[in-house]
Amino acid sequence: MATKHLIQLDDSYIEYYRNLLSNTQAQALYRTLNETLDWQQEHIQIFGKTIASPRLQCFYGDLDVAYRYSGRTFIATPWTDTLAKLKHLISSQTGYPFNGVLCNLYRNGQDAMGWHSDNEPELGQNPVIASFSLGETRNFSLRKTKHTKQCLSLPLEHNSLLLMPEGFQSLYQHAVSRSKKNNDARINLTFRMFYN
What we know:
GO terms for molecular function: dioxygenase activity. This protein is an alpha+beta fold. The chain has three helices and 16 strands. The longest helix has 14 residues, at about 25-35. The N and C termini lie far apart (about 35 Å).
């Protein structure tokens, strides 16, 4: 049974759920996703330069769902049965619908993601994003968009769900920094609603 924690920030909040699945289910899901999803190392544009993405990714969703970021357009691969069931569970838990999921595989502590907000036009004006983590615990850092001082670092544990509510992306940026302490792999699934 998932336990929900409300984390209050200066002008917003996040919801954090521990143990969304049973331990046995979470371990089995991690193995299934690691072995069956179509993991790719994409190339993206940052400050005008094309570089290899610092993590492996794949994108699944409803028919004709597309996602544009870092100079690329990604067309969703149809849901696998496993991802569709997980989407239904997370929608039931949070009360929000989702039609796509960006899947991220951090192979070790050297895989990371820099400061950003998920504010692409196809996500709408006030996107809600549900971020589900499996595997190695990694720190999820938050800072206000107009400030460079970090305000919070939250360890995202195995089998946990983080919900970023409406309005959050316009107020805060987030990142997953490199870490010498984290050598095992982490799978992160970010469920979103796309308006194409």
